[in-house]
UniProtKB/TrEMBL annotation:
<dbReference type="InterPro" id="IPR058980">
    <property type="entry name" value="Glyco_transf_N"/>
</dbReference>
<keyword id="KW-0808">Transferase</keyword>
<keyword id="KW-0328">Glycosyltransferase</keyword>
<comment type="similarity">
    <text>Belongs to the UDP-glycosyltransferase family.</text>
</comment>
<feature type="domain" description="Glycosyltransferase N-terminal">
    <location>
        <begin position="11"/>
        <end position="251"/>
    </location>
</feature>
<dbReference type="Pfam" id="PF26168">
    <property type="entry name" value="Glyco_transf_N"/>
</dbReference>
<dbReference type="InterPro" id="IPR035595">
    <property type="entry name" value="UDP_glycos_trans_CS"/>
</dbReference>
<dbReference type="InterPro" id="IPR002213">
    <property type="entry name" value="UDP_glucos_trans"/>
</dbReference>
<dbReference type="Pfam" id="PF00201">
    <property type="entry name" value="UDPGT"/>
</dbReference>
<dbReference type="GO" id="GO:0035251">
    <property type="term" value="F:UDP-glucosyltransferase activity"/>
</dbReference>
<protein>
    <recommendedName>
        <fullName>Glycosyltransferase</fullName>
        <ecNumber>2.4.1.-</ecNumber>
    </recommendedName>
</protein>
Length: 497
């Protein structure tokens, strides 16, 4: 493509303020800038820390990427200083304040857009920031939504909304068959995303509905997936909605060198990642279980103990990431007083901060990934060719479990039946969804020898090459990124034809 024309293009990226949304959008921004298109990422000071150094490295290597900061309106939104992300909210009662803060950001973002040069051609924004719909109208810019999930998920939501089948049952345990899918997918009503089972908080429900309706006025959707993974779902979603969809993933694969993999998302500069690599180097291929329940998790100490006892009972080596501040002191007391940490020294590593997940998953010693099924983690496990042990809790996680277990057949369920929506943990007693035996059994179904296990591993391994090829030149995701660039050139009247 003509480089003068490309240098006239300027994409602005506005990620939602949570790691699971920021990290893939930063990856996409880097991929786009590699195509000589100018990209500006807008975020707040504390959120920038998790990816700033990787952007600086991109700039040093000549990439036309920039980072611009807008202040987070803590005081105005009633959120304590030091918290600028859903991950660090001190209380889930502040959820509506958080969305208020995003609305307040509209003005500073608009002021920034006025100053950017060359003038932006397009805004790529997370679907959870509805004020960007107003910004794009004001600046007459096409707004491309970034949807942090996959096309399976998009199609399920679309078909549920249009069929209203979820309204035909009231019992949360009733099974619903999601209509119009290539596979027969059954979900309990309670496992559906919260938009289908709204709680009593009217303000929050209104925000969710505003997010949903703002999707309809977007120019198109960028999805972190690839056609060889869920081609049927991509096609069917495009067919039933008529939306423009660009599948450009798996975007985490843009982090090719170990430093990018190790630092991805880490706010601390003092983490010594080599300790994890050394641990993994000391175990045979496919022998270590990696356990991480995402960046936002608020799993109860009672449930975490069951996971711990389950891991212990397998007698297998593991890396277990313990994130989240929810009743954390109680868990720490247990880890120490019960002697768990001491007992399992040498066999298991506990990571109490941020884990270099992409780096860990890429190590040949990893034999399975026990995941909460956030889409980024699910896809990162798939790209690493690792069977998944699925432990969904809320949002799109039960859909992603279906992708792993039923569509790809590379996952095994731990057996979670009930959803505990994010922030509602206090309402569900001790929050124990599965016990230590369930955890042990699921791990044993995946690890070790046996025909069924070997076949599952073979199926999982197949995706390593397919994923890599998708984002390389000639691959479907590479091609889709070219199509996106051409489309925006066309819209802005910059194309050569
Ligand atoms: N992640 C990480 N280290 C951690 C926790 C999370 O690198 O200790 C990354 C993970 O690789 C993924 C993202 O954070 O890219 C989490 O996104 P996901 O959609 O899996 O779940 P969420 O955290 O949004 O629930």
């Amino acid at each position: 493509m003509d480089s003068t024309l490309l240098s006239n293009l300027h994409f602005v990226f506005i990620p939602f303020l949570a790691p699971g949304h920021i990290l893939p959008m930063v990856d996409i921004a880097k991929l786009l800038a590699k195509r000589n298109v100018k990209v500006t990422i807008i975020t707040t000071p504390l959120n920038s820390i998790q990816f700033k150094s990787s952007i600086e490295r991109e700039i040093e290597s000549g990439s036309p990427i920039e980072l611009h900061i807008v202040e987070f309106p803590n005081a105005e939104a009633g959120i304590p200083e030091g918290s600028e992300s859903l991950e660090t909210m001190p209380s889930m009662d502040l959820k509506t304040n958080f969305f208020k803060a995003l609305d307040i950001l509209q003005k500073p973002i608009e002021e920034l857009l006025e100053k950017l040069s060359p003038s932006p051609c397009c805004i790529v924004s997370d679907k959870n920031i509805p004020c960007v719909a107003d910004i794009s109208i004001k600046f007459k810019l096409p707004r491309i939504l970034f949807d942090g999930t996959n096309c399976f998920n998009l199609l399920c939501n679309h078909n549920l909304h249009t069929s209203k089948v979820y309204e035909t049952v009231s019992d949360p345990d009733s099974l619903i068959v999601v209509p119009g899918l290539p596979h027969r997918i059954e979900m309990r009503k309670s496992q559906l995303p919260v938009i289908f089972t709204p709680g009593p908080d009217k303000e929050l429900n209104a925000i969710r509905e505003r997010i949903r309706t703002s999707e309809a006025t977007s120019y198109g959707i960028l999805v972190n997936t690839f056609e060889d993974l869920e081609g049927e779902y991509v096609k069917e979603y495009q067919r039933v909605t008529g939306h423009k969809v660009w599948c450009v993933g798996p975007v985490s694969l843009t982090n090719k060198d170990d430093l990018d993999k190790a630092q991805r998302g880490n706010k601390s500069t003092t983490t010594d990642e080599s300790q994890y690599v050394n641990f993994l180097d000391s175990w045979p291929p496919c022998s270590v279980v990696y356990v991480c329940l995402g960046s936002l998790n608020r799993v109860t100490p009672e449930q975490l103990k069951e996971i711990g006892f389950g891991l212990e009972a397998t007698k297998r080596p593991f890396i277990w990431v313990l994130r989240g501040a929810y009743r954390r002191d109680e868990l720490e007391n247990w880890l120490i007083e019960d002697g768990f940490e001491e007992r399992l020294k040498g066999r298991g590593i506990l990571i109490r901060g941020w884990a270099p997940q992409v780096l860990i998953l890429s190590h040949k010693a990893i034999g399975a990934f026990l995941t909460h099924c956030g889409w980024n983690s699910t896809l990162e496990g798939i790209c690493a060719g690792v069977p998944l042990i699925t432990f969904p809790m809320f949002a799109d996680q039960f859909y992603n479990e279906k992708v792993a277990v039923q569509v790809l057949e590379t996952g095994v369920r731990v057996g979670v039946e009930n959803s505990i929506h994010f922030g509602d943990e206090d309402k569900f007693g001790d929050g124990v969804l599965v016990n230590r035996d369930n955890v042990k059994e699921a791990i044993e179904k995946v690890m070790g020898e046996g025909e069924v296990k070997d076949k599952r591993r073979e199926r999982a391994r197949k995706y390593v090459e397919l994923a890599k090829n998708a984002i390389e030149e000639g691959g479907s995701s590479y091609h889709n990124m070219s199509m996106l660039i051409e489309e925006i050139m066309h819209v802005k009247g910059l194309n050569q034809n």
